[in-house]
Amino acid sequence: MLESGEEAVLGVARRSVARLVLLVALLSAIVATVASPVAALPARGRPPRVEVPEPTGSSAVGTKSLWLVDRSRSDPWNPAVSARELMVSVWYPTAGASRARAPYMSAALSRVVFGSDALAGVRTRAFLDAPPRRRSAPLVVVSPGFGGSRTSLTASAEELASHGYVVAVVDHTYEAPVEFPDGRLEPCRICVGIPDDARVVRTRAADIGFVIDRLTAPDAGLSVDARRIGVFGHSMGGAAAVEALRTDRRIDAAVDLDGNFWTEPPAAGIDRPVLLLGAQRVRTGTPDANWQGMWDRLTGPRRWLDVPAGGHYTFCDMPWIVDRFGIRDGVPPDEAAWQYGTLGGDRATAITRAYVRAFLDRHLRGRPGNLLDRPSRAYPEIRFVG
Prior knowledge:
twelve-stranded mixed beta sheet; transmembrane helix; alpha/beta; membrane; hydrolase; AB_hydrolase_fold; lipid metabolism; 10 helices; two-stranded antiparallel ribbon; Rossmann fold
C-alpha cells in the first residue's frame, strides 16, 4: 500500500535531519577516539596523502572562492545582518594550471565540522586560482545538504569541470558552518530545530538565483553561457534545486539527489527536465510518497532512478571520506545502512558522477547518450523507477 499522509512524510524528513546531526556527532567522536588514519594524523608535519577521487574528463580544473553579498535582501536567519552574504566555490576548465592544488577545506573549518583538522590535509584535483579557459561553458549551480559545507560536493563539481562545465557550489550561510575571508567562521544557527523547512528551500532557491545573477554578469570573469544553466543539489539542496527550476526561467534542468520535498508540488507542474536520483526510495515495490507527489507534477522530461544498495550520503563526498579515513566501521550498523548502504565510496562517486553528467549533457548540451534510457551493464546498481 502506498505510504501517504503529511505525518508520514514529516516523520521521514525529521529522521533525516536527526540522523545528520547524529552523523556529525559520531564522526567527531570517532575522529577523537578511534585508532584510524584520522586519529593518527600528526598535529604538525606532513599528513597522509588523501585526495579527492580523480575526475574522468580531459580538462585541467581550476577553482576559486567568491564572497558574494546580496544587498537586496536581509539575512533570513540573522536579523542583525542587513544583507545576505554567501561563500561560493567555483570550479572550471583551465588552460593554465598553477602549481598549488586547492585544499579540501581549512583546518579551522575541518575542526568545526569534524572535530579534527584531518580534512585540511586532503587535496583536491583543482588548481587554486588558475585562469579560466576562455571557451564559453554551461553553468551549473549546486546546493549541498542541510548542515553540509559547500566542500561536500567537490568530487561531482570537479568531474563536471573536467568535462567543460563551470560549476558553482553555494554555502548557504547559517545553514552550515561557513568560513569567510575576513576570518569569521559563522556557525549553523538553525541546524537544531529548523524553523521552517519550506522557508529553507525558498531561501536556497533565492540564493541560487542570486549566484546566477553574479556569475552571468559581464564582469564575472568566467566564460559562462547564460543560455545553458543547470542546477543540482543533495538532500535539502536537491529540493532547493527543483524549487529554483520552478521559480527561475533561466534554469534549464535540475537534479535532486535524495532530497525530500518541502514546498507544495506546483499546481501548474514543472515543464523542464528533472532527474530524481535517490537511495532506497522504493520499498517492497512501493515508491516513496514524498517523491511521488512531486513526480506527478513533473510535466517535462523526467527520470526517477533509485540505488537500492545506496544510502542518503551516497551522492556526496561522505562515502569516500569515511573509506579513506577508516570511519565506516565505527558507525553503528543500522545507521551505516541508512547513511551509506553497502556501496563503497569510490563506486558511489562513480555512479553519482555518471548519471548527473549524463543528465546535464543531454539537457544543456544536446548530447543524448543512452545511459538515461535503459538499465546499464556498467551500472547494475541503478534501478529505473520512472
